[in-house]
Amino acid sequence: MHDKAAIRRRALALIAVDGQGVAARLAGEFELSRQAVSTHLQALLREGLIEAEGQTRGRVYRLATLDETVRRYDREGLREDVVWREVFAPAVTTLPENVRDIWHYGVTEMVNNAIDHSGSAQVEIGVRRNAAFTDGWVADDGEGIFLKIQRALNLYDAREAILELAKGKLTTDPAHHSGEGIFFASKVFDAYDIRSGQLHFMHGHGELDVLMERPADAPGTLVLMRLNNDSPRTVKSVFDEFAAPEEYSFAKTVVPVRLAQYEGEKLVSRSQAKRLYQRFERFRHVVLDFEGVAEIGQAFADELFRVFAAAHPEVELMPVHMTKTVAQMISRAEARE
Questions:
Q1: What CATH superfamily is the domain 67-237?
Q2: Looking at the DSSP assignment, which residues form a beta bridge with residue 71?
Q3: What residue spans define the domains of the chain?
Q4: Distance CA 165, CA 26 (A)
Q5: What pTM did the predictor assign?
Q6: Half-sphere exposure of 327 toward its Cβ, with a 13 Å CA cutoff?
Q7: Which helix (H) or strand (E) holds 218?
Q8: CATH code of the domain occupying 4-63
Q9: Which of 70, 247, 285, 325 makes an SS bond possible with 126, Cβ 3.0 to 4.6 Å?
Q10: What angle do helix axes 34-46 and 4-17 make, rounded to 10 degrees?
Q11: pLDDT digits 0-9 by tens, 186-233
Q12: How many CA atoms lie within 13 A of 329 on its CB side?
């Protein structure tokens, strides 16, 4: 006997990814007849959780929007707790407590960033929920987050700002901000995107961080967040993952090394290594994720794993997801006296 709730949850998950051929895929996974699968899909249609176009085998399903709110606020005098109560809280009130907590944390952090840093006249906030997941966004028409960080840190290129954001503990206003908001917000959601200027940075759980160039130089900053409505994740579990043992401090970071290389470029020089390890001394543990990096040069490895490591013995460098070539180069650097 199949669990009806499990079948319908799986149907929603399949539709969220691809609305074509849902009946056949569901029948194959649960070893059900087409008639039995049709009964479940018809129930989801009657409940208004999904919509459909077409007939029989060519039918295409999509998730129905159950709640959607978009508001524009004047930035001057805006409070993030007001935005939460007026826009987001009503949309997620029926979701599990841990999911509501994640939305509360992420939304208030992103709205506060827009209030304090964007300089925009107005801020747009939106939320859209369906039966499988919820999307939220915060948009402004200010200077743009990547350009602002580039200017504040005197970086060569706006793309370097994304690498600094990925490390965490970065803020252009240290007197009033810890620099933790974007780092932890990117970790608590299933998908987290920042679009600003000509750049688009995407972070997703279990996926490579992606940096893309956008076709248009759009003004301001757009932050997009997505979370499954039944996510088991908690804010505390994410904070604990990056805290020092027996402490509640931000002591560990995960750095996608591939963000340090420009398109078509290999990581071979000491200057590239120096760009990568900038601000590493603020952490006790730095996980260097080499996913997507096929090889590194001797000078790069020596600067990072011998020179920096010797100068900062209190910082533990932990390389992961290395190719054999990368691992060999790191071992050579660490073996040198």
A1: Histidine kinase-like ATPase, C-terminal domain (3.30.565.10)
A2: 125
A3: 4-63, 67-237, 242-335
A4: 41
A5: 0.85
A6: 6
A7: strand 210-228
A8: 1.10.10.10
A9: 70
A10: 80
A11: 889 999 999 988 888 888 766 666 676 666 666 799 999 999 999 999
A12: 21
- The answer to whether residues 8 and 43 touch, using CB atoms and an 8 Å cutoff, is yes
pLDDT tens-digit readout, 229-283: 999 999 999 888 887 655 556 788 889 998 888 867 899 999 999 999 999 998 9
Which burial class, exposed, middle or buried, applies to 267 when counting CB atoms under 10 A from its CB (0-12, 13-18, 19+)?
buried
Looking up tokens 């919820």 gives: 134
Q: What is the pLDDT of residues 98-136, one digit of tens each?
A: 999 999 999 999 999 999 888 999 999 999 999 999 999
Residue type (1 letter), 215: P
DSSP string for 157-175: SHHHHHHHHHH----S-TT
Sequence letter at residue 193:
D
Amino acid at site 36: A
Task: Measure the CA–CA gap between 171 and 175, rounded to whole angstroms.
Answer: 9
Distance, in Å, from the CA atom of 216 to the CA atom of 272, rounded to the nearest integer, reads 28
